[in-house]
Amino acid sequence: MARLENKVVLISGGASGIGAETVRLVLREGGKAVLADRDAARGAALAKELGPAALFVPLDVTQEADWQKAVAATVDAFGGLHGLVNAAGIGVRNTIEDCSLEEYRRVNEINSMGTFLGCKSAFAAMRKSGGGSMVNISSVLGLRGASAAMAYCASKGAVRALTKYVALYGSNVKVRCNSVHPGYIDTPMIAPRLAQTIGNRSGRQALEDLHPLGRLGEPVEVANMILFLLSDESSFSTGSEFVCDGGLTA
Ligand SMILES: NC(=O)c1ccc[n+]([C@@H]2O[C@H](COP(=O)([O-])OP(=O)(O)OC[C@H]3O[C@@H](n4cnc5c(N)ncnc54)[C@H](O)[C@@H]3O)[C@@H](O)[C@H]2O)c1
Fold first, then answer.
1. Domain range holding 123?
2. Which helix (H) or strand (E) holds 10?
3. pLDDT for residue 198 is more than 90
């Protein structure tokens, strides 16, 4: 039997990178995927390519009304909700001294508040569906600091702690919730950094050197971990941190 047979999964940030790879794996494993993203052109094109088991819905994760519509559209189209992946996010570089309040708010509204709204909006539909699995994409920078990613670190640390709260709250209605902590993954999010030169190294080389495995991660390597967490194979895991970082935090 396929690993996500009869499961319906809503994926924010599903138009690109880690979210898009997760959509592909959900379909490969027999599930239905709703990809929700603010990039409507890219999201609609991917859903069209993947066929009737995939649906695109427009979503700005900072807007509660968008979330409510996305959850309702998911249940209307596929009859329930068993998985939520909060993958939408932005990466911004700043320090404690140069980050404006406006920029701090923007990063935290998308990465952290967007994850809160996702968990909140999906909870009732998931409980009604008999339970399910929420997967919140944090980062290695939700576990440790990085000198030039102040607001991002704060936002991803909040995702890690929110995840533990939701896991406890959902434990008696079979709603599990775990966080995933990727190292540097080769997606459009980090493309600007790869194109820079840092000292005498290319940006790509500098980021590769952070990982003991000596390379960047591929989106599918994170999506495989998310797939495990969405499936019943992870049935005894909730409130935990799943690291996928080529040894970076070791
Ligand atoms: N790429 C990495 O190195 C890396 C490392 C650790 C964690 N992450 C996290 O993984 C997640 C996925 O990132 P990715 O690397 O696949 O990046 P990506 O840029 O390829 O994809 C992010 C997606 O989120 C969408 N998005 C951004 N803001 C949104 C909003 N307000 N509402 C709805 N959608 C929005 C974008 O349109 C895009 O489709 C993010 O949360 C990111 O912080 C990425």
1. 8-244
2. strand 8-12
3. no
Q: 17 and 187 in contact (C-beta within 8 Å)?
A: yes
| Residue to mutate, 62, 92, 187, 190, ligand 1, most ligand atoms under 8 Å from C-beta | 187
* Mutational pocket test of ligand 1: of 12, 16, 109, 249, the residue with most ligand atoms within 8 Å of the beta carbon: 16
pLDDT tens string 18-58 = 999 999 999 999 999 999 999 999 999 999 999 999 999 99
Whether 188 is in a domain gets the answer yes
- Among 114, 94, 115, 113, which residue's Cα sits nearest to residue 103? 94
**40 within domain boundaries:** yes
Number of domains forming the structure of the chain: 1
Decide if 179 contacts 241 (C-beta within 8 A).
yes
Question: What residue ranges line ligand 1, CB within 6 angstroms?
Answer: 12-13, 15-19, 37-39, 59-62, 87-91, 110, 137, 139, 182, 184-185, 187-190
**Of all atoms in ligand 1, which is nearest to the CA of residue 18?**
16
pLDDT digits over 115-145, tens only? 999 999 999 999 999 999 999 999 999 999 9
Task: Tell me whether residue 177 is in a domain.
Answer: yes
- The Å distance, Cα 172 to ligand 1 centre, comes to 31
